[in-house]
């Protein structure tokens, strides 16, 4: 094998190993590491310059350390993900049933606070490829509180929610699709289901 081919092959395998490490794909990364070791043994015994051999050895060490780091990153990511899920569930539970957490005052309305409400007669929207709505035009709050909005994933749609603006793109939907919208004033929330009709 020519020296230039050795270098090119080493770079290709090294790049594949790094992609696997970045993706936390330990099995593939270990496989590529073994391929690098086999190739390094050929490089070590070749007539390549010493500096090339030294660089190859350094890159193999980087891959080895990267593989060792996969387990650490994965366990941390799982831990962070579990905490995030727990916090989200608690948040929704507080909104849905505050008395369960000793927050009965929220159910009655904090200091007379009333929940937001749907402020439009329109609940059906036709769209072809994309639909954008300003949710402040459809929800209102009796006290004039600033509203935040949430929605749920819906099969057949790609949904992007930024502030008060929701953008829905057709991703294979046909006919009538229900979409649940949630408005919160920070104390109470309201759910409203609208119907999107794909033309």
Describe this structure in a few short sentences.
With 199 residues, the protein is α+β, with helices and mostly antiparallel strands.
How far from one another are the termini? 61 Å
Q: What sort of overall outline do the alpha carbons produce when their principal axes are compared?
A: elongated
> What is the number of E strands?
9
Helix content: 40-55%
Number of helices: 4
Strand adjacency order, main sheet: 2-9-8-5
Main pleated-sheet profile: 4 strands, mixed
**Unreliable segments (pLDDT under 50, ≥5 consecutive)?**
94-111
Q: How would you state the average pLDDT, rounded?
A: 77
| Percentage of β-strand residues | 15-25%
Structural class: alpha+beta
Description of the structure:
46% of the residues lie in helices and 25% in strands. The chain is α+β, with helices and mostly antiparallel strands and 199 residues long. The strands form 3 sheets. Strands 2-9-8-5 form a 4-stranded mixed β-sheet, with no helix packed on it. It has a 3-stranded antiparallel β-sheet with strand order 3-7-6, with no helix packed on it. β6 and β7 form a beta hairpin. Mean pLDDT is 77; it is low at 94-111.
Features:
4 helices, 199 residues, alpha+beta, three-stranded antiparallel sheet
Secondary structure layout:
Layout: H1 3-22, H2 26-44, H3 50-96, H4 104-108, E1 117-118, E2 124-127, E3 130-134, E4 139-140, E5 148-151, E6 157-162, E7 165-170, E8 175-184, E9 189-198
Parallel strand pairs: 2-9
Antiparallel strand pairs: 1-4, 3-7, 5-8, 6-7, 8-9
């Amino acid at each position: 094998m020519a020296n230039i081919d050795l270098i090119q092959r080493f770079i290709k395998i090294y790049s594949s190993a790094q992609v696997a490490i970045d993706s936390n794909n330990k099995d593939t990364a270990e496989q590529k590491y073994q391929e690098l070791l086999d190739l390094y043994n050929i490089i070590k015994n070749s007539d390549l310059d010493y500096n090339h051999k030294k660089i190859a050895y350094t890159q193999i060490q980087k891959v080895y350390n990267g593989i060792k780091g996969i387990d650490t990153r994965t366990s941390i990511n799982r831990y962070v993900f579990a905490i995030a899920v727990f916090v989200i569930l608690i948040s929704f539970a507080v909104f849905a049933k505050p008395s369960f957490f000793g927050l009965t005052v929220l159910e009655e309305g904090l200091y007379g606070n009333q929940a937001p409400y749907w402020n439009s007669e329109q609940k059906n929207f036709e769209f072809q490829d994309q639909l954008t709505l300003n949710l402040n035009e459809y929800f209102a709050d009796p006290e004039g509180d600033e509203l935040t909005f949430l929605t749920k994933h819906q099969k057949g749609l790609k949904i992007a929610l930024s502030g008060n603006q929701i953008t829905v793109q057709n991703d294979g939907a046909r006919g009538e699709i229900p979409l649940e919208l949630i408005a919160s004033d920070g104390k109470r929330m309201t759910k409203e289901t609208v119907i999107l009709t794909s033309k």
